[in-house]
Amino acid sequence: MENEREKKNIIKNKQRAKRTYVAEILNLKLFITKPIVASDENKEEQEELKQAASTVASQKSKKKKLLSLSFFLINIIVIAVILVIQLSGNTVAPPGKIDVNGWFLLAAVGCFLCMVVMDAVRDISLVKKVSGKMRPALGYKLSTMGRYYDNITPVSQPFQIYYLNKYGVSGGASITVVMAKYIFSQLTFVVMASIFLFGNAQLSLAGANSAGTAIIYTFAWVGYGITAVLVLVVGLICLNKKIGVGLVVGVLKPFCKLFRLDYKKYLFKILRITATWQKTMREFAKSPMVWILTFLNASAQSVLSWFIPFFVYCAFVGWAPDQIFEIMTLVVMTGAASRSIPLPGGAGMNEISFTVLFASLFAGSGAAFWSLIIWRIILYYAPIAHGFAVMGYDYFIGNKRLSKYKEKWMHQHNFIRRKNAPRDLD
């Protein structure tokens, strides 16, 4: 009798588990296929805004400030260690003994300035697309703050959503703009990195000639693989609901069980993120030209960022057009390696990867370390300084103007812009 009862209980438990799993899939399908109204009253949008505000508020805590400072200090410490190692090996030439072509350094700075302009143009166009308003100052500040937070925090999206909503962009529009930026940046990296990594397979697959370069190569391909899988999953979720549903639920459950995580908690997060991604894709699917222009803009920015190390190299070694493809491939691998360790700005990993991968190109010149410093100043420290300047403007001027603007031109309870409100106040 006891054995029969045990068998019945086992069968009931299996059936119950099966019903639960099916219910979760049906709930996920219902959540995804349910039309989402682009309104601040939408619960999903309100949840996103609350989380964004919570993240921004937590950033002001002493613990978060120390954490952000630690990421910045990691870069300084790694650079100091690299300097000490290279000084001990007599591979760093004194600044006064190196011939530097200032025109090439100017070209590198010019690439960075072009990236700033193109980034602002993209954000202005995205804000215009979702809100119907041309707000150039807000688009410029959003792009600047986006780069700033990318370099000091692991996840910058909540800060950008909060910033847009603070300046009168609705919750749904804010989320759509920021998620579009993120999705396009990931998609662009995978496409452009694939061109260089597989186009120069002799270097990217078999170029490791020491233990150090082999490790960096491994990290590079792991980082590239993680990003490619992420883009593939997002594409499947957004384009094919059945495959997306099975993929999300089928992978999440064993993953949570393996690492003993709260399955329901992470399922809810996946539901919300999935719905946000799908909404973003539906919004931009209506305008293929926006897709194309945004992708081309992001691709051009990637190429410009990869030209900066090339011009820095030419400043110390001389004009070498035959080295463009090789240097860009190494830069792509440097960026991919930093993605395998998700620290803001690739803290530490970028410096180590650059030093290891570019060592042979600068052999005998003693300029490798100075090239690293200039490259990081342009692409890491300059965006932080730029963002800090915008934050200073907001603190002393922008926030005061915003308060007066809201009192005069905005409805205080639901933040609706009046018809005769000025559009250029950001």
Write the layout of secondary structure elements.
Blueprint (H helix, E strand, L loop, with lengths): L1 H32 L9 H17 L2 H27 L13 H30 L4 H17 L4 H10 L4 H29 L1 H4 L6 H29 L1 H19 L3 H23 L2 H30 L6 H16 L9 H9 L10 H42 L17
Shape: globular
Low-confidence stretches: 21-41
Amount of helix: over 70%
Overall structural class, as computed from helix and strand content, comes to mainly alpha
Major sheet, described briefly?
A: none
Kindly provide the radius of gyration, computed on alpha-carbon positions and rounded to a whole number of angstroms: 25 Å
Cα separation of the termini: 76 Å
Q: What is the number of domains?
A: 1
List keywords for this structure.
single chain, 426 residues, mainly alpha, 15 helices, 0% strand, globular
